[in-house]
Amino acid sequence: MVATERGSDELPLAGTDKNELENIEIELLLSGVHRLYGYDFRNYALPSLKRRIWHHVHAENLSSISALQEKVLHDRTCFERFIYSLSIPVTEMFRDPGLFMAFRQKVVPLLRTYPYIRIWHAGCSTGEEVYSMAILLQEEGLYDKARIYATDMNNRSLQQAKEGVYEISKMKQYTKNYLEAGGKHAFSKYYTAKYNSVIFQPDLRKNIIFAEHNLATDTSFNEFNVIFCRNVMIYFNDELRDHVHGLFCESLSRFGVLVLGAKESIHFTRYSDSYEPLDRVEKIYRKVK
């Protein structure tokens, strides 16, 4: 009989240590999730994935990954909680203000030459970055000819993004970010405060399309002038990262712009020769072939 309790002093099988058993349990869990629900986490970076899985094991008051597998495969609501725990959003309005300032200075002039602008925010989480882009484009006089596609695999995060409602306690930091990013007005112009929350103005949402999309399993769905994917691929292994870079390269128009996170880079991928840097520090690249 194979022990499923983590922390048992007994080895389940001769030659199988606890770490190997843990990896087998994770492999079986992710394979089951992929086969039953179509979500593929098998090429996520293992150390981060392992931490998040164990966090959810304890959140469900379970004692092993095998027990989590049984519950996830038989209880749809548990699966939805599990998906949310693997894609915990970490974002804010105008996060990394220097990036948005560089975008105003180096990308906006290029966008002015286009008759129509398509922007994809891949892994948009709860939408703060999307609304930041809408505000920036509105201030630069480009929003009316733009369409923003905001996608994420997490439906709960997408729902919050669609609503555009955030905690009022965060507005002080968001206002600071906005001003450092080159904001041209009072930030409070863009939202209405109500009790402990704020809701962003409806006109910011009029050209935004929110939709589910899984970077690991879904394909390209349009041609874009700009793709934002920041602090998402740090959770992927090399194989999945390369796959996603291929998806982005396929989805970008000639001279389209790719924006990555501070700890990410196009270098050391097989698509690096397809881009030239517009800003090396802020990780803004332009597709040249």
From TrEMBL:
Entries under Gene3D superfamilies matching the protein: Vaccinia Virus protein VP39 (3.40.50.150)
InterPro entries, A to Z: Bact_Chemotaxis_MeTrfase, CheR_C, CheR_MeTrfase, CheR_N, SAM-dependent_MTases_sf
Top-level taxon in the UniProt lineage: Bacteria
Residue span, CheR-type methyltransferase domain: 14-266
Biological process (GO), any one: methylation
A GO MF term: S-adenosylmethionine-dependent methyltransferase activity
Keyword Methyltransferase appears in the UniProt entry: yes
Pfam families: CheR (PF01739), CheR_N (PF03705)
Keyword annotations of the record: Methyltransferase, Transferase
Protein name (database record): Protein-glutamate O-methyltransferase CheR
